Amino acid sequence: MAKNDPYAALRIKEFNIFLLVRFALVFGWSMQFIVIEWQVYALTNDKLSLGIIGLCEFLPAFLFAPFAGHIVDKKEKRNLFTLCIALFSLISFGLFWLTSEAIESSWTVNYILYGIYSLVFFGGVLRAFFGPTIFSLIALIVPKKIYPNAATWSSSTWKGANVFGALCGGFLIAWIGVHYTLGIIFSLVMLALILVFGINKKPVLNKKTNESVMDSLKVGLRFVFNDKVILGALTLDMIAVLFGGAVAIFAVFAKDVLDAGPRGFGFLNAALSSGSIITMVATTYLPITKNTGKKLLISVFGFGICMIIFGASKLLWLSLVALFLSGVFDGVSMVIRQTILQLKTPDDMRGRVGAVNSMFVGSSNELGALESGVAAKLFGAPLAVILGGTVTLITVTTMHFKNKSLRELDLTKDIEEHEKDGV
């Protein structure tokens, strides 16, 4: 096997452009979410209104995902990506317009809220297309033999943009206000729209033009649920996020459990995110293709252990260490999952498989926040996190004994075959 090159994907010009586009979009989307939550709460002073924002984005993203996968497999990916960005720019401009002084002085609060909720809903529809389009486009930009490296850089870019976008969103609200912050977001989206033309059009690999929507959806779902490796990887990620995550109730820990205040709240978020980012970058130097299945199981098991420690901790330093390590394990599992999906998915089904992945991951994020809140209300925040971590451990243990294909997965041969074929 050829010597590992940690910068293999970065030597491809189109992939660098893709990373810039993705960073600008995710950075802007992350800021936009923070800014809109702030604005809506400022208008209503109602916590339920924040839940409505999440619901407006989750429902269309989940419901439209299967249809989006079908369309993505049928269409040229660069142009579809461009269309998604163009429509996203309209949403960003709409939010910028709704927060202007002219609108705030002439519209009632309810009309402004309805406008914001509507744009967030359409953003959720777009999100259903973004996931499978990006997943499909990466595979057409880089050769198969460097999929793992490309998946690592792409995941690192997404995570970094997500984290820094959230941080900058809060800072910019305080510095220049909501309206002008949304103006910066619109500018970022327009920058992404210009950059995306640096990527050439790609061939459409799904030639089944007469296949109906329902038949296409059935084929995609059947493939995922019949492939034990892909299904196992998606299930592990979904359970870990749905039950093991605690981001939604960090504020409770900072205020009531650790007595750390707003600064401690920031440290908790930073510890988790920094662990993920550092690890994802490190995996470019330490490839995860050998004994891939065992590494995935160990990483998710380690994540569950760390969350149990975090839930039981009453010391800020111990909680920070536990969250940092949980971010490390989460970063490894994210890269492994993306690598498995890229290598094991047929080229003509990437849109549909990417859509199913979006449904698993996207739904688990929003529903995980709901689960955390309900469990914290019923059992208290510490016990809720401990129980979630325990469910994660039980899931990993069950997967270890019941899913031999995933347990014994090794992607080394897959990479070597692609290297021999020169693809």
UniProtKB/TrEMBL annotation:
What GO annotations for molecular function exist for this entry?
Answer: transmembrane transporter activity
Q: What domain of life does the UniProt record list for this protein's source? A: Bacteria
InterPro entries, per database record: MFS, MFS_trans_sf
Mind telling me which SUPFAM superfamilies this protein's record contains?
MFS general substrate transporter
GO CC list: plasma membrane
Keyword tags: Cell membrane, Membrane, Transmembrane, Transmembrane helix, Transport
Q: Which cell locations does it reside in?
A: Cell membrane
- Enumerate the transmembrane spans: 15-36, 48-68, 80-99, 111-140, 161-178, 184-200, 229-253, 265-288, 300-325, 379-401
Q: What is the membrane topology here?
A: Multi-pass membrane protein
Q: What is this protein called?
A: Predicted arabinose efflux permease, MFS family
